[in-house]
Design a protein that fits this description.
Length: 380
Amino acid sequence: MQYKSKLPNVSTNIFSIMSALANQHNALNLSQGFPNYPSSQKLNDLVNNAMNTGYNQYAPMPGNLDLLTAISNKYQLLYNNSYHPEKEITVTSGASQAIFTIISTFIRPNDEVIIFTPAYDCYEPAIELNGGKTITIQLSAPDYGVNWETVKSKISSKTKMIIINSPHNPSGTIWSETDMLQLQDLTKNTDIIVLSDEVYEHIIFDGEQHQSVCLFNDLKQRSFITASFGKTFHNTGWKIGYCCAPEYLMSEFRKAHQFNVFCVNHPMQKGLADYMQDSKTYTSLPNFFQQKRDLFLSLISESRFKIKPSQGTYFQVLDYSEITGEYDVDFAKRLTKDFGIASIPLSVFNENDKDDKVLRFCFAKTDETLVKATEIICKI
């Protein structure tokens, strides 16, 4: 058969490559972003109870109402803000599906979408599949700060969407209130939709506050928030997330969502709804993950890597420029094969594979795993 690929430049992603390499060489896998400790037994029991009490048929297309209400209550508690549970929130098959559906709903051929690189790798393929054009703004290590004059210069009449991500994967940085106000000012009185990837909203450190788009009134009126229960509650394999937006945007989203996914695993939705009745299930997370970050950093403080502590997410970027001048992909592969530890090179997320000589390590691991990993890192 003859066909023309819609994604001719896409190959196996770096997460699959590094995880496969880790398995092949029996290496500690600090590459892909998933915990190696169990989901809460209480949450598991609540899901099991939902199955046993009859939540085994299709959920309503937007989501189980108890879960939609729990999500709405969370925004009220954390941000003193609200999304209508039945009109402005939709449960999705993970955050990636929400992101793909948002882009598919609003981006047409030749529309331009601004993203900030290094960027999570699901953004650009979705734009390309829908005929859009990705406009990249490259951020640089170690601060990964945004030059707002550059952003302003990239906005044109063709700009239909801006995708932001804070706390930021892969760099572990966060956007400030000033950043959000700059974004609000640049998009005000335009038709630009903001897609705010906030999957790590509960994983933020050192007393900082997450600057959600819902805190900024004009931004909220033009924005989608995407979020992930997998990242929040340590069960990435469940693939359940959600998105929030004003009703006029959400109604368009649901037109596509109903034919793409229709609805999401019902007993898991009910279990999550019951679990979230206790707000400590998510308000305790910053302290939980900061303890892991601090343990990881304390144990590698004497290593040859240069360290700028992660501000959020469960990733830590380490600068290896004083160790070797190798291309980061080559160095990451060598560490996996020769030292037995897998990480993620950041150049693959950058414009033109820009190599800042940094690797990303996931510290959402048991303390035992982190101790073993840091012993290896200190030998490099």
